[in-house]
Amino acid sequence: MAQDWRLFQGGGTEPHDVEWPVAPPWRRFGDAAAHHRTDGRPPAYVIAPEDRDVVNTALHLHRPLLVTGRPGTGKSTLAHAVARELRLGPVLHWPVNSRSTLADGLYRYDAVGRLRDASLRGGDPGGPAAGEPDIGDYLRLGPLGTALLPRGKPRVLLIDELDKGDVDLPNDLLTVFEEGAFDIPELARLKQPDVEVRTTGTEEKARISGGRVGCDVFPVVVITSNGERDFPPAFLRRCVRLDIKQPDERQLREIVTMHLGPEVGAQAQQLITAFLDLRDTQERELATDQLLNAVHLRSSGVRMDFDTLRETVLRSLDEADI
Fold first, then answer.
1. pLDDT: is 3 or 302 the higher one?
2. C-alpha distances in angstroms, 9 versus 4, 293, 306?
3. What are 54-102's pLDDT values in tens digits?
């Protein structure tokens, strides 16, 4: 008799040990971390030739790439694919929300913490040496500020879901995008010419001269938008725009194979056909990762009938369809 795939039974079932299921590649963390195929290499990024050319246009023009498309079409993943293929280091990630400001992306200065520590130093003769704490210990460059540090090769900056931010944020970014530089007033008014400050994504410090940060090579900026609102023409003029379409049947097969291996990919056609029927014929709002979740469940031995699979994993993202 086949073992029940249900780990949790409910209904007053006695506590019991279970064999914990293997996570999908995209849900592995720590030492098991992810996005690896069975051969140990990271999966490739499936992109249409015309979209690939738009990405390269932005790279050659040193302009931000504004990526739009439905949820699950790989907008954010594109930034990681570019960084990995071109060996540009870890992606600097700035997730935007309704409270985000330009200052959040550039730098943060903890003036209150510095004042508190200065008081403690002055009030405790047995404590650290008297004098103001180093301002560099209380100032950290944000993702955008870190991306604009001078270096020989650019960093990749992902500004995620800019359309969720304040209406003024795109316009606030224009000057920084045009100049590739910004000033830190708290450092500019100091007498000392150089200050070492903390950066995003590492404990290493960067040396800032005269309170100004400016890049040598403009970073690879990938801006994503779900199309929740329009951007001003002045902002659009300074970006190269890419609208990612939903993957077709061939691309879906490639995506499944790259993430779950060729053996699983060869067995996924039935689910791919059903997914396309729901997405295109029945006009359900579905994301590609929902298909990956469904295929993973089937390939890992979960004996869930299709109706249950559709209502749990392949539910429409559009509330009107639910």
1. 302
2. 10, 22, 20
3. 999 999 999 999 999 988 888 999 999 999 999 999 999 999 999 999 9
Give the side-chain half-sphere CA count within 13 A for 168: 6
Instruction: Return the domain boundaries, the chain.
Output: 49-126+133-243, 247-321
Distant-in-sequence, close-in-space partners of 288: CB < 8 Å, separation ≥ 6: 72, 73, 74, 246, 247, 252, 255
CATH class of segment(s) 49-126+133-243: alpha beta
User: What type of residue is 26?
Assistant: W
State the Cα–Cα distance between residues 279 and 248, nearest whole angstrom. Answer: 11
Q: How far is CA 86 from the centre of its chain?
A: 17
Beta bridge partners of 206: 197
| Token digits of residue 44 | 């490739």
Cβ neighbourhood burial of 191 (10 Å; 0-12, 13-18, 19+): exposed
Contact 209, 193 (CB under 8 A): yes
> What pairs with residue 209 in β-bridges?
194, 212
pLDDT in tens, 135-186: 878 899 999 999 999 999 999 999 999 999 999 999 999 999 999 999 999 8
